[in-house]
Amino acid sequence: MSAFDHTVSDYQLPHAYWLARAAKLAYSDEATIRDTVREWGFDRCEYFHAELDSSFPIEDTQAYAAGSDRMIVVAFRGTEPAKIKDWLSDANALVAPGPAGKGLVHEGFSRALDSIYSQVRDAVQRFRDAEQTLWFTGHSLGGALAMLASARMYFESPQLLPDGVYTFGQPRTCDRFLAGPYDDAFPSRVFRFVNNNDLVAQLPPEPFHHVAAIRYFGADGKLRERMTVAGGLTDRVKGFTSDAFAPASDGVRDHQVDRYVDLLEKSIG
Fold first, then answer.
1. Which residue spans traverse the membrane (predicted)?
2. What is the pLDDT of residues 135-160, one digit of tens each?
């Protein structure tokens, strides 16, 4: 696989693969993150970590920003399905105001992002000294934070319009009053990858919404750039029944970040 291409400025599948790897790297410790992004050609790196209230389902928030003379990547860490699915399943989850007062977002996501947002924004502003492209990425909870951070950065500082937001196994993050303006503001810049029966991508329940853009891996592992409701339901049934010995684990297995990286690598060929 070729190296991280810092000249990319639009949607490309190899770039999606590298951003999936960047999202996976967000799960690592600070030293590993710094060493790896240096190998990828980024000469600047800032690491962000904040502990949250011990009574809160999300224990902490972790992310990093990597910058070069051509590109900036901001990646947020996710969490494991066992830790996220219970509180995402709560239909009575509290909500918080969305970026610049647009719509509502899940309070858990809002509080997690608030803990490091000002540091992330400041790092992006320092790194962006030569009109570098700007990319956000994250898996699971990290995908929700990537979406919200990009929305907040643009709606509060319109000059910071990201060139791309790539998420993997992202949960529903906001209501339609933010999802709509976000889709309008980020045409051809947002790509939400979902793997078949990924359970986290199906949560939380209404009134939470997804942004519109989707790239869907079917039960056969092939990438589809669009999916009808009927086609998606049929394909999910295929994925669910393909492992007769452990059907209940299908949604957890499909959510793993390694699975997204592997599927994208195979899609490139």
1. none
2. 999 999 999 999 999 999 999 987 78
Question: What Cα–Cα distance (Å) separates residue 124 from each residue in 99, 106, 117, 128, 246?
Answer: 18, 24, 11, 6, 44
- In the prediction, which pLDDT does 247 show? 46
Indicate the pairing of strand 133-139 with strand 164-168: parallel
Q: What angle do CA 139, 231, 80 make, to 5 degrees?
A: 20
Q: What is the dihedral of CA 206, 211, 217, 219, to 10 degrees?
A: 20
Q: How far is CA 123 from CA 48, 109, 129, 207, in A?
A: 10, 21, 11, 33
For the chain, give every domain's residue range.
13-268
What is the β-pairing status of strands 215-217 and 190-195?
parallel
Band of residue 252 on the pLDDT scale cut at 50, 70, 90:
confident
Measure the CA–CA gap between 48 and 213, rounded to whole angstroms. 28
What is the pLDDT at residue 175? 94
Rg of the chain, C-alpha, whole Å: 17
List, for residues 6-52, the tens digit of each pLDDT value: 999 999 999 999 999 999 999 999 999 999 999 999 999 999 999 88
70/133 Cα distance (integer angstroms) = 6
Task: Please name the residue that has the structure tokens 């519109």.
Answer: 212
Amino acid 241: pLDDT: 46
pTM: 0.90
Q: Residue 150 corresponds to which tokens in the numbers above?
A: 């990009």
The CATH code of the domain at 13-268 is 3.40.50.1820
